[in-house]
Amino acid sequence: MTSPDLTRANIDKIADLFPNVVTESSDADGNSVRAVDFDLLRQELSDHIVEGPQERYRLDWPGKRAAAFAANAPIAKTLRPVREESVDFDTTKNLFIEGDNLDALKLLQESYLGKVKLIYIDPPYNTGNDFVYEDDFAESNVDYLERSGQTLASGERLVANPESNGRFHSDWLSMMYPRLRLARNLLSSDGFIFISIDEGEQAALRHICDEVFGTPSYVTTIMWRRKRETSNDSKNVAIQGEFILVYARSVEGALALEPLAEDYVAASYRDPTSEFPEGRWRGVPITVSKGLKGGGYVYSVVTPSGDEISRTWAYPRESFERLALSGRLYWGANGAGVPQRVMYAHEGQGQPTTNYWDTTGSNKEGKKAILDLFGDAVFDTVKPVSLLQRIIGLASVKDSIVMDFFAGSATTAHAVLAANAIDGGTRRFIVVQLDEVVSQGSTAAQNGYGVVSEISRERIRRAGLKLKSDAGVLQDRVDVGFRALRVDTTNLADTSITADELVQTSLLDVVGSVKPGRTSEDLLFQVLLDWGLELTMPIQKETADGFEVYDVEEGALILCTRPREARDSSLSLSLSGCRSHRGASAATCRVLRRRLRGRRGAHQRRAGVQ
Question: What is the mean pLDDT of residues 416-434?
């Protein structure tokens, strides 16, 4: 009987925007209450690392503030198309991105904000031998690599996390934290994230996921049996399983029901009979308890044997009679029992999934899939396609976007293609893989692969070809291609220079704003990112009066470029109109205006505009 608690309402609003800043505190009476961590809130609203630690209930580690800063820090990078590595570049709706996934997640924020239905990741486990990503935004990449002695000919950005380094939860958590925060932004309101992890970091990962996604968004932790054989792996404990943490983007998120398991149908449903020939069936009671809230319907019925039965029924008499007329009542073996409604197995809506999966493939099955495709074990640890297909069935629909930013051997992409081939869906994948150098002398190196991302792309190609040949009637409808993109520095050159630094010999270097070697298509994809357009939109290219004209999604964006006479590698750029384009001729302007009018008319006709 009081006025609304505005403080609580404000905390709820902040929690919706920044769930990681809401924590627990104590009030004047010592009771636990929700509170805002103002230091973390300041960090969210700041463009630099802020100080001010306080004691509170949360998971802390050295470097957490820097990790939060890394999630928000801007980068001067872009995604460049790589046509020669792509499959069906002009028509596919799938994306393969090569590069650091933190950079990729930042670049995708505008184009795919709230559009991804399912994210599955299998990050590197903190075993002391694996590598983890090192993120440092306080200095340039070149300075950082030189300072830390990590500069290699391949340019990889990886550092070891061995026992001698503490191994250490802090390094691993600092790597995961900013990536999870950015991933949350990409999830749709009904989206889910599944994260595979071993017992080494399962507890810590649960803590940071509670912070990033909010404790109410936790769905379950699935134990997946990844090994069939028993072995003495560690301290006389046979490690056969891994964890899969599941979080929803919204607290109301619920996973889909799974199809009825064959063993469940066999145990719970009867064989078809002459009376019920449509398939395996079972009887479902239609009586209710007299004390049940909402009551029921009390009336008498006559059995086929002539007996009269009075009960409290779940259905009104009219519905009961319809069931009887349709032959959907079972009266017992002698026709004198309490009637039950007949339900066929094929009519069942499914059953909830469990948090223990012991029949959903194994690592051995995953490795066999690689052997079948490549003829050799070019990848060591591989999740089975069946595991990802089960996850896809639980947390996506036929037209969903599925993402994996630790792609590895590209099992997630393979599973998306396989799911579409089975049910004719149009699911799309976005997968990201670092160009991590394979070990010298490894099977992958012996087969000619230099970096992991090469194996990932080749796996998608080979899996797509196999699925295409096996797809039957769906063959022409299954999209097994992908647009290959690569994380790179921005296409725009730094032309800021003071007058006293400018000399005649450097005039040409500051005339063009585009870096040498960058193509018109490079510029196009940077504009798509800047404007928040999806990177798989259809693109039409024409040449008019020496200009290259790109038409994206029938007029959503029109971009015109041409080579400069002074430097073949420089390009001048104009967006959505030629009047600002100093080099564009009247003929080119007419072409663009005509195309714009045509596209606008097409859109109006589709919308019913007169």
Answer: 94
